[in-house]
Design a protein that fits this description.
There is one protein chain. By secondary structure, the chain is of the alpha/beta class. It contains 12 helices and 12 strands. It has helices spanning 47-54, 67-77, 89-101, 117-124, 142-147, 171-180, 203-209, 237-246, 254-265, 267-290, 309-321, 340-352; strands at residues 32-33, 84-87, 107-112, 128-133, 153-159, 186-190, 213-218, 231-234, 302-306, 324-325, 327-329, 332-336. Strands 2-8-7-6-5-3-4 form a 7-stranded mixed beta sheet, sandwiched between helices. Strands 9-12-11 form a 3-stranded antiparallel beta sheet, covered by helices on one side. Helix 7 (203-209) links the parallel strand 6 and strand 7. It binds pyridoxal-5'-phosphate.
Length: 353
C-alpha cells in the first residue's frame, strides 16, 4: 500500500471487523439474514411512533446527557443515575472502557472466540491483546483468564452469554473470578444477550461486592433497536464519569433515546418476546444436536455449530444457496434465530451434510 499520509503503522495489524453478510437472492426463495444476531420480530407497538415524534425537530441536538433515559434505566435496575452511562450501542460503551484504561504498555484479557470488537478495540489503543481460549464446551476458561492477568493488565472483558458460542457465565464462576482479580482492574461483563438467557450470573448483584465490575448492555438485541444505536454501561461513579469524558456528546440521537424509553416502558413485552425466541432457539439447538452436530449450550438469540474449517465453508455455502446468510467464524458457524422457515432451511442443510 502507498504511504501518502502519516497514519499509524499499527493500522496494518488491526483485525478486521467482518459484518454479517446479507443473504444472496435465490429464485423462488424468500431471503433471510441470520448472520448478525438481529431481532427478527417486528417492532413493538409505539416504538416507530416514538422515534418519529422525537425526530420531529432534526435541526436540534438531542439531550447530551440523555437524562430521561438515564433516569428510566436507573429506576428500572435500581441503581443511581450517576452509575448509568448511555452510548450509541454497547459498542460505544465498550470503546469508552478501552479508551479510559488501555494504552501502549498495558494489556487486556478476554476470552476467545468472543465478540469481534474486543481485539479491534485493543489494537486501536495499542494495548497488548491477551485472548484466552474458551474451554471445549464454549465456556470461559476462568483459570486461564486469571492466569493471564499481570501488573500490566488494566481491563478484563467477559461475555455472558458468549457471542458466538452461546454459554453464559454462572454466579459461582463470576464470583470466584472476581475474587482473584485485583480490585483496581476493571472487569467488564458484556451482557448484550442477557434477556435471552435462561440462567446467567447476576451482574447487578455482583457489582455490589465488586465495584470494579462494569456491566455493558444494549437495546440492540432483545429490544430490537440495533438500527437506532443505543446501549449503556452500569459502572461505579468514578469509572462512569471517566467514561463520559471520552464519549462524544450527543452520540445517542433523540429518536434512539425516545425508542429506548418506550421499549423500557414495555419491558415485560420485551421479556416475553425474548422468551419466545429462546424457546425457538432451544428447539433448533436440540434438532441440530439430534443430527449429530456439536452445539454448545445456547443462551443468546443464536446457535453455535462447531465445525472444522472445510465443513464450515460448506455449511455456509449450502445455506447461501438456500438464500440464508449465516455467520462463519473461527471454529464454526453461528446461526441467528430467525423465522421458522429460515431455520427449517438451515436444518435441511445440516441434515444433508
Ligand atoms: C451485539 C453485541 C454488542 C453490542 O452491540 P451494539 O449494537 O453496539 O449495542 C456487544 N457485545 C456483544 C457480545 C454483541 O454481540
Amino acid at each position: 500500500m502507498s504511504k501518502r499520509f502519516l497514519l499509524r503503522d499499527a493500522l496494518a495489524e488491526f483485525p478486521p471487523y467482518v459484518p454479517g453478510k446479507p443473504p444472496v437472492a435465490s429464485p423462488g426463495l424468500t431471503p433471510f439474514k441470520l448472520s448478525s444476531n438481529e431481532n427478527h420480530l417486528p417492532p413493538l407497538p409505539g416504538i416507530v411512533e416514538s422515534v418519529a415524534t422525537a425526530s420531529a425537530t432534526p435541526g436540534n441536538y438531542p439531550d447530551p446527557t440523555a437524562a430521561a433515559l438515564v433516569a428510566d434505566i436507573a429506576s428500572h435496575l435500581d441503581v443511581e443515575p450517576a452509575e448509568v452511562v448511555p452510548g450509541a450501542g454497547a459498542s460505544e460503551v465498550l470503546t469508552a472502557l478501552t479508551n479510559i484504561t488501555l494504552e501502549a504498555g498495558t494489556s487486556v484479557v478476554y476470552p476467545w472466540p468472543s465478540f469481534e470488537m474486543y481485539p479491534i478495540l485493543a489494537s486501536a489503543r495499542g494495548a497488548q491483546k491477551r485472548p484466552v481460549d474458551l474451554l471445549a464446551d464454549g465456556r470461559h476458561d476462568f483459570a486461564g483468564l486469571a492466569a493471564a492477568i499481570d501488573d500490566t493488565t488494566r481491563l478484563v472483558l467477559l461475555c455472558s452469554p458468549n457471542n458466538p458460542t452461546g454459554p453464559t457465565i454462572t454466579d459461582a464462576e463470576l464470583e470466584g473470578f472476581l475474587a482473584e482479580v485485583p480490585e483496581s482492574v476493571i472487569v467488564v461483563l458484556d451482557e448484550a444477550y442477557l434477556e435471552f438467557a435462561t440462567e446467567a450470573a447476576d451482574g447487578l448483584a455482583a457489582r455490589k461486592r465488586h465495584p470494579n465490575l462494569v456491566l455493558a448492555r444494549t437495546f440492540s438485541k432483545a429490544h430490537g433497536l440495533a438500527g437506532l444505536r443505543v446501549g449503556y454501561g452500569i459502572a461505579d461513579v468514578e469509572i462512569a464519569s471517566a467514561m463520559r469524558q471520552v464519549i462524544a456528546p450527543f452520540s445517542v440521537t433523540a429518536g434512539a433515546q425516545a425508542a429506548a424509553r418506550e421499549s423500557l416502558s414495555r419491558v415485560d413485552e420485551v421479556a416475553v418476546r425474548a422468551k419466545e425466541i429462546a424457546a425457538v432457539r432451544d428447539r433448533f439447538a436440540h434438532d441440530l444436536r439430534e443430527l449429530g452436530l456439536s452445539v454448545p449450550d445456547a443462551q443468546g438469540n443464536y446457535v453455535w455449530i462447531a465445525l472444522d474449517p472445510e465443513a464450515a465453508v460448506a455449511f455456509e455455502g449450502e445455506c447461501a444457496k438456500q438464500a440464508v446468510a449465516v455467520r462463519r467464524l473461527q471454529g464454526g458457524v453461528r446461526v441467528s434465530i430467525g423465522p421458522d422457515e429460515a431455520l427449517e432451511r438451515v436444518l435441511k442443510v445440516a441434515a444433508s451434510l
